[in-house]
Structure formats: structure tokens, C-alpha cells
Amino acid sequence: MLPEGSVAVILDSALVARPGATGSPSSLTVTHGARAQRGAGSWTVVAPEVPGVMNPPQHVLLDTTAVIAQVERGAEVLRGRRPVLSTTVVKQFIRDPNRRNVLSDELRGFLSTSRGKLVPDGTEATVGQLQARAQELGRSLSTTDARIGGAAIREGLPVITSDKRFRNFLRAIGYPVEGH
Prior knowledge:
5-stranded parallel sheet, single chain, globular, 36% helix, 11 strands, Rossmann fold, 3-stranded antiparallel sheet
């Protein structure tokens, strides 16, 4: 679900693009009053003039690097927002044998005190579409990053990551992403 007042288009039933993004989808669905201009075989997303659209989201999807920064290093990556973690992020975080008990202690405490939540990964169809889009752009996207990105797209949330490759891919498709 997209945040209230957000502007997006859905390309090929799964890829969400933000204003200014371009693409050549086989199907195009425009949401929240945005419009898309068709160019030479591609689309450009154009945002409508909607007062108050720039309100920051209350939730943000963290990738594993952001969770490590927040939980283990005490970095303030949330900036007052509530964290959302995908299944893949939790699995990556606890994969390290030194963190096996963290899920029941620090991670649960972090989610509880910050009023965060867990969400399922992006679907395999979305994963495939994201990886195909990466290839079209001459990039690579790991399955884990595609699952995390798919979760963010489905939830309509921006992503926080320090993974430069993942961040640059999301920017390239016009999806909101922040570094930390």
C-alpha cells in the first residue's frame, strides 16, 4: 500500500516508479493522480500539483545494513520514523552466529520500542521483474536485495541502506531511498 498522498505508477504490475522515472512497461497503471507522458517507446512519470504531498512517511523499510547501524552501533537512521523489516532482513541479520540470540533480545526490543513491524519479502514475480529491470539498466541486483526492494514496493515505503549498489539501483528506477 502506498503512503497517503504519495504519487507513483506501477509498471508491469509490480515496479513502482516515482515522479521523473522513465521506463518502457508492457502495462502502465497510474496512481494518486500522477500522469505519465509517453515518449519514443518509454514513459516518464509526472507528479501532479498536490498540496501537502511532501509529508515524510511514518514508516521506512530498513535493509540489513541499516538494522546493524541502528541496533548494534546506535546510529540514528530512523529520524523519528517507525522501522519496517522484511523477512530477508531478519534472516540476514541473524545469520551471523554471534547474533543468533539477538532476534529474541535486541532486535525484538528495537522493534518494540520503535513500534516497528515485520513484513513478508517481495513476491518472486516482483523479484524477477526487479532483476530484469536491473539487467536492462546494465546493473546486477542480488536476489536478497530484490526481495527487500519488493517488500518496500509492496508496502509503499522508502528504503534506508548503506549498500551503494542497491541504493543506486533504486535511484535509477526512481524509487525513494536514503543512505545512512
